[in-house]
């Protein structure tokens, strides 16, 4: 879970925020608020996943709560847009920084597709090896980011003791500047960027059917995984904002290289580039690992072509679904081309289904009163209610901010409804 959450966002998002806001305390407050929203969602999905420990995640929640049509529409969108855009968006950051580190000028789109090919191959060759690979990359990047934070906190403490000990160029405090835009105009791009950085907490549900003792382990993963990411992100942003003036932050592409260069010299930028490469590679790998399980689960239910639910006879992995996802991810990279376009399409479509998944909890509590629930959301119905309201707010504000693009994605979602009924007509027994 932590592997798929921590990608490139913690390095790139602070720059986006600095281009819109000038109050560091407000920025930290928004990071915390977004983290608490993610935690509310994680607790909500923890109850659903422990109650329904089957591979597929949100697809399973929607199918059990609302029936096959909404579940089909989610799976249709997830397979064609959401997961290809997410995997491609993260991997393209890997390609950018790989060229930067090596000094090469390889085509970034082609390099992204090569990386996705090898990550898909690792996942096809077995879930245990894939999991070990994920754990290694996650451990490395988590430790590396903690190292950056530790250096920043050490410099902060020295500066508090004696301002003369502050690194050259350090702001030495949380200094406010005039905001480039109003809060009303800034809230959508800022919250979209922050929520993208937190996104991934829901993906663990996609492999619920392959988790040992899911009734106990899945709630722990949702809770402690989300809390650990919130803590890491709050510390990282405090260090960034303490040392780097917001106008300077707004002008750079990624903030961590600037911080490390300030703290340890020119080698710092190279170190952070390596961290970003490992981080985005690990996040892309985890995204590939979880994404294909939704397509696989939908195909096994007869709501997609049966061949997509094929299990490899030797490696016991959803090999066909993985390779189809790879092809669609490369298509997304070639069509949308840049990180921003890929991320925007992913964030908008997913928040609609996050909200529906949380509503499914209310439906299932009403429909299946006596169903065994190994885990119950603390603070029900307030906690899942807050998450539903946040999902609605993110969707509405995104439409107001960019109606042309968001309405196009809504059209894709709605197209899934006639496709479902066409599918039901062609394959009535399966549907």
Give your account of this protein's structure.
75% of the residues lie in helices and 0% in strands. The chain has a single domain (2-426), classed as Up-down Bundle (Amino acid/polyamine transporter I). It is mostly helical and 431 residues long. The model has no long low-confidence stretch (mean pLDDT 86).
In short:
By secondary structure, the protein is mostly helical. The chain has helices at 2-5, 9-18, 24-51, 58-66, 68-102, 108-124, 127-161, 183-198, 214-243, 246-251, 255-264, 267-300, 319-336, 339-367, 382-401, 403-426. The model has no long low-confidence stretch (mean pLDDT 86).
Entry keywords:
single chain; mainly alpha; 431 residues
What general outline do the C-alpha atoms trace? Answer: globular
Helix content: over 70%
H/E element sequence = HHHHHHHHHHHHHHHH
Major sheet? none
CATH class membership: Mainly Alpha
Question: Considering the protein shown, what is the CATH homologous superfamily?
Answer: Amino acid/polyamine transporter I
CATH architecture: Up-down Bundle
- Total tally of structural domains: 1
Write the topology of this structure:
Elements: H1 2-5, H2 9-18, H3 24-51, H4 58-66, H5 68-102, H6 108-124, H7 127-161, H8 183-198, H9 214-243, H10 246-251, H11 255-264, H12 267-300, H13 319-336, H14 339-367, H15 382-401, H16 403-426
Helix pairs in contact: 2-8, 3-8, 3-9, 3-14, 3-15, 4-5, 4-14, 5-6, 5-12, 5-13, 5-14, 5-16, 6-12, 6-13, 7-9, 7-11, 7-12, 8-15, 11-12, 12-13, 14-15, 15-16
